[in-house]
Each structure stands twice: as C-alpha cells, then as structure tokens.
Amino acid sequence: MRKLLTLWSRAEAAVYIGIGFTLLLAALGALVQIWGQYFVPWFLHPSLQSFDALSILDQLLVVSMLGEILQMVKISLTQRRMFSEPFLVVGLISVVRRIIIITAESNRFIEQHETRFTLFMGELVVLGFLLVVLVFSIHKLRRQRLEEARRLRAERREHPDTPNLQDVLSGQG
Questions:
Q1: What is the count of structural domains for the chain?
Q2: Which domain holds residue 98?
Q3: How many CB atoms are located within 10 Å of the residue 54 CB?
Q4: Position 167 in a domain
Q5: How far apart are CA 15 and CA 9, in angstroms?
Q6: Is residue 65 a contact partner of residue 95, using CB atoms and an 8 Å limit?
Q7: What mean pLDDT value characterizes the chain?
Q8: How far apart are the C-alpha atoms of 50 and 72, rounded to whole Å?
C-alpha cells in the first residue's frame, strides 16, 4: 500500500510538472507573439505601424492569468495544498480584462446597436459586482491568514512546543 501511495504521489507530481511546463510555454509563446506582432514591426518601421494598445493589454492580461495559474501549480507542487487566493486573483484579472474590453468597445456600440450597448451595460453591472466580491474575498483571506499567523506566534510564546506556521501549512504540525 505504501509503495502504491508513493507511486501515486510521483505520478501526481509528474502531472503537475507537465502542466507547469505547458503553462510556461504558453505564457512565453504569448509574449513572443505580442512582441512579434506589435513591437518588432513598430521598431523596424515606426511610421508605418499603428499601435493597438487595447489588444496588447488584452493579451498581456491573458499572460498574467497564465502566470497566476502557473503560481498555483507551483504552490501545489511545493506545499501539496491548494489555496483559494490564486484562483481569486485569476478571477479578478479576468473580470478586469473583460471590463476594459467592454468599456473600450462601448463607444462603437453606442452608435450602431443600442440593444447590444444595453446588454454590455448589464454585463458591466454584473462584472462590477463580481469585482467587489473578489476584492473583498481576497482581503478577507489575507486578513484571516494574518490573524492565524498572529495567533500562532502568541501560542508559540506561551507554549514553545507549538508548531510554526510553515509546519502547519505543510501538514507537518
């Protein structure tokens, strides 16, 4: 049974490492694409190229989301635990990304499609609510983690044999 669990742990680590490398390659590929599509042509012929800042920002936010997911994989590998905060950060980045896209494109839809503009405004309301919920959740998690660290430090002062925060997080304490 112990050998089976060891084999399972190694297989799980291999899967996470594969996911990590795939995410890393995707993020690096997206960055190379951004540079190749926008910056290199602009450096070679600045007068001929127009700069589409919205597309660059949109693609950079996708790279940022990939980076956060990569961080989650690294935490899963090193600490053998899942934490909610990186998931909330990815959600926050995707909400901000969508808000930026909608607000940038809204001028086009005001003149052309009034019903579509109304739908976009409804989506903005929902996204605004999600933004507030995600920021509040991240703040609450960070405050909870800080309070837990303070409580553990106080217990450690009173009882020197109390495990430290790293031991508790890694499951050793």
A1: 2
A2: 83-158
A3: 13
A4: no
A5: 10
A6: no
A7: 82
A8: 36
30: amino acid identity, one letter: A
Sign of the dihedral defined by the CA atoms of residues 116, 119, 124, 125, in that order: positive
Q: What is the mean pLDDT of residues 138-158?
A: 86
- For 68, residues 6+ apart whose C-beta sits below 8 A from its C-beta are 86, 89, 90, 93
| Confidence at residue 168, expressed as pLDDT on a 0 to 100 scale | 62
CB atoms within 10 A of CB 69: 19
Long-range CB contacts for residues 115-121, cutoff 8 Å, separation at least 24: none
Residues 101 and 137: their CA atoms lie apart, in Å, by: 24
Q: Read off the pLDDT of residues 94-126 as tens digits, 9 standing for 90 and up.
A: 899 888 888 877 776 666 666 777 788 888 999
Q: How far apart are the first and last CA of the chain?
A: 24
* pTM tops 0.70, yes or no: no
Last residue of a domain, one of 82, 102, 127: 82
